[in-house]
Specification:
356 residues, alpha/beta, four-stranded parallel sheet, 16 helices, globular
Length: 356
């Protein structure tokens, strides 16, 4: 008799819902949702990490510990184009040294360029997996990711202007709950359709020309609310229309790297890292569209994002658009962040009044 694996992945925004769907519906294994990250998660991760690793290493390590203690026996780790590609191997060794007993499926070990090698990793989850069922579940999960990203975009563009405070938050909470419990493509499509329908009906008190801020930054930190201390929500609550190009859909499912490289050629001749071209393009795009400001988010020690900062300064100078640089580590606090956001808001608000 085959024993069902209990699979988990470090918490990453709401993308775990799509992975849960794929594991349970496509791989016929049990998915253990990593508990929501807390200060304790980060503290434990940081305590057991090497000193000079980037912050996402610490948060994901802590989240793995939480997941294993929640009952997972198998941890999945992704590959990456920067130091992320080394996370899995090192984190596995750290966890084993701490006494955890588990199986690690590290996709970095299977990134040979041949798609069939990824099947070897999946067969470790379920050696008897049904290819047709797996493929359909993967297609559904990809669509769920697109829906999650689109819903999040709609939310942050509008939640700061709702007439009845909390309306968007309640709707979003129902949408995410439906995604978490979805067991079919019909469930996924219905949840998204209902979100779009009811979101369009929420009364807004939105000025004709609201403050607009574009967020760019390092892949995990800019997307994950815990990692960035809910910076997008904080800015939206000030009455700002928040935009963010960097998400899984745009970076992994619809990425047009060559086109973006052409459009940013005046600012960078070479690719500088996993998210560099996309973020430079994003900054230029926001500047050309007349946005009021740009927020650049990175984790401490993220070399690719450090490298693009001079480029962002050039874009800022050429288009006369302010850029706020935020760096996060395991010690970053809400107090310091709130002060900087308030000052940035005051600046772009006064600047807009002068320009208009």
């Amino acid at each position: 008799m085959q024993v069902r694996r209990k699979v988990s992945f470090p918490e990453f925004n709401h993308y775990n819902y799509a992975l849960k769907y794929f594991i349970e519906q496509g791989m016929e294994a049990q998915y253990i949702m990593a508990p929501p990250m807390t200060v304790r998660t980060m503290e434990r991760g940081a305590k057991n990490s090497p000193d000079f690793v980037c912050t996402p290493f610490k948060s994901t390590l802590g989240s793995m510990m939480d997941a294993l203690e929640a009952g997972a026996d198998t941890i999945i780790m992704t590959m990456g184009l920067c130091r992320l590609g080394y996370y899995g191997e090192l984190q596995e060794q750290i966890l084993r040294d701490m006494g955890y007993n588990f199986d690690m499926i590290n996709f970095a070990e299977y990134s040979t360029g041949r798609k069939r090698d990824y099947l070897k990793a999946l067969k470790r989850i379920n050696p008897r997996m049904n290819m047709a069922k797996m493929t359909k579940a993967l297609t559904d999960a990809v669509k769920m990711v697109e829906y999650l990203d689109d819903a999040e975009s709609i939310y942050y563009k509008n939640c700061g202007f709702e007439k009845n405070k909390g309306s968007y938050g309640k709707l979003r909470k129902k949408f995410l709950a439906a995604m978490e419990t979805a067991s079919s493509r019909k469930d996924i499509d219905r949840a998204y359709s209902l979100f779009k329908k009811y979101a369009a009906e929420i009364p807004l008190d939105k000025p004709e020309n609201p403050l607009r801020v574009g967020f760019i930054g390092e892949f995990l930190t800019v997307m994950d609310p815990f990692s960035n201390l809910h910076v997008e929500q904080k800015m939206a609550d000030m009455g700002v229309e928040v935009h963010r190009y960097m998400n899984v859909t745009n970076r992994m499912l619809r990425y047009k790297g060559d086109n973006l490289a052409v459009e940013t050629a005046e600012y960078c001749e070479y690719e500088m890292g996993p998210t560099s071209t996309a973020n430079i393009w994003g900054a230029k795009h926001y500047a050309e569209k007349g946005f009021d400001g740009i927020v650049h988010i990175k984790s401490a020690g993220c070399t690719p994002e450090i490298d693009i900062m001079p480029v962002l300064q050039n874009i800022s100078a050429d288009y006369k658009i302010p850029v706020l640089y935020l760096t996060y580590d395991s010690q970053t606090s809400d107090t310091g962040l709130d002060t900087r956001l308030e000052a940035f808001y005051d600046m772009i608000s006064m600047r807009k009044k002068v320009i208009l």
